Amino acid sequence: SVVRNALFCLETAANQKENHVYTKALLAYAFALAGNTEKRKALLDSLEKEAVRKDGSVHWQRPGKELEAGLPHHRHRAPSAEVEMTAYVLLAQLTSQPGPAQEELAFASLIAKWISSQQNPNGGFSSTQ
To answer: How many CB atoms are closer than 10 A to CB 83?
Structure first.
């Protein structure tokens, strides 16, 4: 009953008109783990509309956190929240039953490309998640 109540709470949150992109990413992964394919797909469809497509990769960022133009030549690493939410979208994308379709894998590879570009020289990330 605890899990059922928790899922009910998440469904209520998912049905709100305005959800933050980070919240959608977490909800998509939670519904993927719970096996709720309809909610997972609806959230992933919504997230895909908010995706940032750049340099052959895909990621998500918080509203108002666009990168500044004219940065020096060093490679920019996104804040940890962007890395985390993009990673949650990737997990939701790959957590489908019986398994991800070919188009989901193709989209997931674009997400993975961006995440791998966020690694620091030691192989870690700005996020601890």
So the answer is: 22
**In CATH, which of 1.50.10.20, 1.10.630.10, 2.40.50.100, 3.40.630.30 is domain 2-66+75-118?**
1.50.10.20
Spacing of C-alpha 122 from chain mean position: 23
Spatial distance between the Cα atoms of 110 and 58, rounded to a whole number of angstroms? 5
Tens of pLDDT along 85-102?
999 999 999 998 888 889
Rounded to two decimals, the pTM is: 0.86
